[in-house]
Design a protein that fits this description.
The chain is mainly alpha-helical. Helix content is 66%, strand content 0%. It contains six helices and no strands. It has helices at residues 15-27, 35-54, 59-70, 78-89, 95-113, 126-146. Helix 1 packs across helix 2, helix 2 (35-54) runs antiparallel to helix 3 (59-70) and helix 5 (95-113) crosses helix 6 (126-146). It is elongated.
Length: 148
């Protein structure tokens, strides 16, 4: 998949688009084709970076602020959580089939995720363990009902 960058002469992705796209492919693959989202978020991150530099912040500080914008509400990955549960508890789903299976089970699993107040610190909360137990049960029921 290629996103044309109208801001460059070569049509290549900007730094922020590339970083976000890589992250989405790994942790939110269901969002990796959303060109408008990627463009908008990358543009906002670039603006944040440029503003921080103009304000006299260091490059490291400016990148940290830009990353906050770039990855806003993306730190917790429902896909990664499903993938970890499948990898750990369902060896019958072969490694080469896991991504496709997880993408298939993710939409109905939203009912489980929606029971929890998920934020940037959720993975370190006691509720995270409860979620993973409930999610594992959901996946088991899904397999029993629909198969792999």
């Amino acid at each position: 998949m290629t996103i044309q960058d109208k801001n460059t002469a070569t049509g290549e992705l900007s730094y922020f688009e590339t970083a976000l796209l890589f992250y989405l492919k790994e942790s939110h693959p269901h969002m990796a084709d959303d060109k408008a989202f990627i463009r908008e978020r990358a543009d906002s991150a670039a603006e944040s970076y440029e503003h921080a530099i103009r304000e006299g912040l260091s490059v490291a500080q400016a990148l940290e602020l830009a990353d906050t914008v770039l990855y806003q509400d993306l730190r917790f990955s429902r896909f990664d959580t499903v993938f970890e549960a499948v990898s750990e508890w369902f060896p019958e789903i072969l490694p080469e089939e896991r991504t496709d299976f997880c993408l298939k089970v993710l939409p109905p699993a939203e009912a489980v995720f929606n029971k929890y107040p998920i934020d940037g610190r959720f993975e370190s909360s006691p509720s995270y363990h409860t979620l993973t137990v409930e999610l594992t049960g959901f996946i088991q029921s899904y397999i029993e009902r629909y198969g792999i």
